[in-house]
Amino acid sequence: MFFERHQGGEQAVLVHPELISDQDREDPREFKELVSSAGANPIAFLTISKQQPNPKYLVGSGKLEEIRQQVKAHEAELVIFNHALSPSQERNLEKELQCRVLDRTGLILDIFAQRARTHEGKLQVELAQLQHMSTRLVRGWTHLERQKGGIGLRGPGETQLETDRRLLRARIKSITKRLEKVRKQRDQGRRARKRAEVPSISFVGYTNAGKSTLFNYLTAADVYAADQLFATLDPTLRRIKVPDLGPVVLADTVGFIRHLPHKLVEAFRATLEETVMADLLVHVVDISDPNYQDNIEQVEAVLKEIGANELPSLQVYNKIDQLSDVQPRVDYNEQGVPTRVWLSAQQGNGTELLVKAIAEHMGDQLIQQTITLTPQQSRLRAQFYELGVVQSESIDAAGNTLVKIRMPKQDYDRLLGRSGLKPEALLSVTH
Hints:
single chain; Rossmann fold; Alpha-Beta Plaits; GTPase HflX; G_HFLX_dom
């Protein structure tokens, strides 16, 4: 990483501002979970109610003194605010409190830095960190007003701050170019899947809703899953076979959170494109969370921000094992299309209903036909078998192959179109 970050376990004073002027306030319970996920040790929790934020410190002078006393009494190394702080507010608070100050965005960035496993994930986090830190470079430096001097250092008169900013800009440019390369590679992979007619399904949802647990259960994968925020950062793709539909690619993606920093959305653009390009979104919801309705709205807001709000979606109400008298089931709309599946990914109850609902949702124009293929069309027969849509076959008296298929009509028409054939040319008989 370009910037050093703490390794967790620090004594932290938590400050939860409740500003009357804020229309959409942060959740104190979620704040504590974020701090716990970061590995800090909270030793005091202060709630501050205020009409308007103080432009210099965010909080008033009385509360600032209270925070200072808590820091001194517990010898805290860190003060974390459950609110966005401007660079000047952060610097002023650090000067007054004589310890490191972190806002909500910085806290989420640190968790992301700890969770990133792949090279791509680490690059994305570092880019977001650099963009966030670029306005906070003055922190910690005592020599910024001095220009370089001495043997070998005389010349353009560049201050240390200017040097740091130049190096930082160069690093941001380098990472952006590397991520652009990753993005192109992902795009090539998606195009290859489209050519192979393999539909993609992206798992989305609020952080800690159980996406990875459900993903692991369906794919027998070993994606890291834990009861903590942002357990998954790096996207994982797995291919599974869905009855009546054939092979599909499932994508497990990063969890969303309210007020997800825009810098993170920008940095994770390559990852989030797996969501934007999906044929179906499976929106996983922790139904045991009292704020589940708010969480749904936050996820939908992020989907709108990345341009994925118009995609077909299927809701999954997960963790029904934590509710009383709720059984696995599928809810349908007036057109008979599945809209919601109730299940428990932890226990595996209802997962078969999800697979069935996916097949119904994506195969709403499913066709079942017996088609006649001549010996010269053996390549087309092989393609039907590759897609896993052949239910049975037989040979007629003329030596033609009668193939009974079941597949989405869109895929059927596309396959015949590539072969230069029209559906009626195969002498199809509908069952």
